[in-house]
Fold:
Amino acid sequence: MARSRFFTSVNRYFDRAAAYTGLERGLLDQIRTCNSIIRLRFPVKDDDGSIHVVEAYRAEHSFHRLPTKGGIRFSQHVNLDETIALAALMTFKCALVGVPFGGAKGGVRVNPRTISDGFRERLTRRYTAELVRKNFIGPNVDVPAPDYGTGEREMAWIADTYQNLRMNESNPYACVTGKPVEMQGIPGRTKATGLGVYYGIRCCLEDVPEMEAAGVDPGIQGKRTIVQGLGNVGYHAASFLQREGRAIITGIAEFEGGLWNEHGLDVEEVYQYRKQHGTLEGFPNAQFIQNSAELLEYPCDLLVPAALESQITAENAHRIQAKIIAEAANGPVDEDANDILLAAGKLIIPDLYLNAGGVTVSYFEWLKNRAGVSFDRMISRHEELMKGELIDEMELLTGARVAPDQRKRLIHGPSEEEIVVAALEQTMIIAWKKITQCRRQYEIPDYRTAGFVLSIKAVAQTYKTQGIFP
Ligand code: NAD
Structure:
């Protein structure tokens, strides 16, 4: 059977990195292979009473740590290869950023743009029931999250369905992450992947030795940036790049077309316009590009593909003008294109690092659900008291007085969102340092291979500690 380009690329990236690890073949085979897969077909009633038989999958790539974890995708392109490749990326992503889960992924073959809300809900609940029946979901088993075409709403339906089917379990809501905050979700999860993308790009661009070696001016400020996909990941990444990093967003590519303005687009205005009109067409003071794929080839410093896989292939890689390609989506650059871009001296910030913010914050949500307490509840007041005492002491020693509103600002204990965001930032900083160290240590030419080397070694270490491999 001919395998898809995405699936082949992920395996080849693995093999390339595996060669640096010196690990034995059997162990590498175990790490590379997908451990368990289900293929489902189930009926869902449409609003007019007609029945559609829906095709769906769940792949659990690695059981070296449990639960397994990975998003659920609603897309008309979903297939077995794609689901396995995405699940494999989850294993390596989690290992790279120190999230103690195996990788998994779910896919449902539907067009998320055309299904009604009613169909969407019936479909999500039925898919969840199928996963429960096959033991492919549960707080200790496999924990889904949002991905392309899904969000908070679907996660709420999953949690509710699971809870109803597993009444006696403690913390049933820990069966899924990315839930609404009111349903034991965690503040900051919705923006987490995009914010992590911003932190990852910042880590790379502010790494002066790395940027000097690559001939790039360090820093995000003023970098002309094109973003593909204004969904959950792309919107938040573009917003943070513009607001916090002061990048100039010159292009935004969406499904129905793209926008270009060399002086910059206001991300929030574009986002609101599309929400209101259902299209980017007609947005004022920008050129509308009918074939949005062309925007990938426009002049810019930074290209952020945040839609789907295999967007940059051997066919268009030669025409990419960006110096840095930041993989916010999973697998947007296939292996042939990867090599063409690297040979042209471009930098690729790889998906397994760059979009790991989502699973990192999902991990925090899962921990919170398991503990049954929010992170700020246990420390916030204590921190306020400690800081208050420190200020009292300083006043005593210096004879100076801190104004009441300044005191209030200084002693404020962290909110749960502040704790989550700080931990996410720290995770991205540490992982970037590890990638660059590994690259230097093994004299690896690119960040992706270095990321895979670290991940493979981390998974191998777990297997060895478990005594399965010598
Ligand atoms: P989403 O459904 O919220 O948004 C995707 C956007 O891409 C949509 O607005 C869609 O219209 C647009 N799009 C689709 N085809 C396009 C095309 N050909 N050109 C331009 N735009 C196009 O999905 P998302 O959650 O933002 O996921 C995007 C990518 O990020 C996927 O690869 C996903 O696997 C990855 N990812 C998502 C998360 C997460 O937390 N949601 C985490 C890690 C990785």
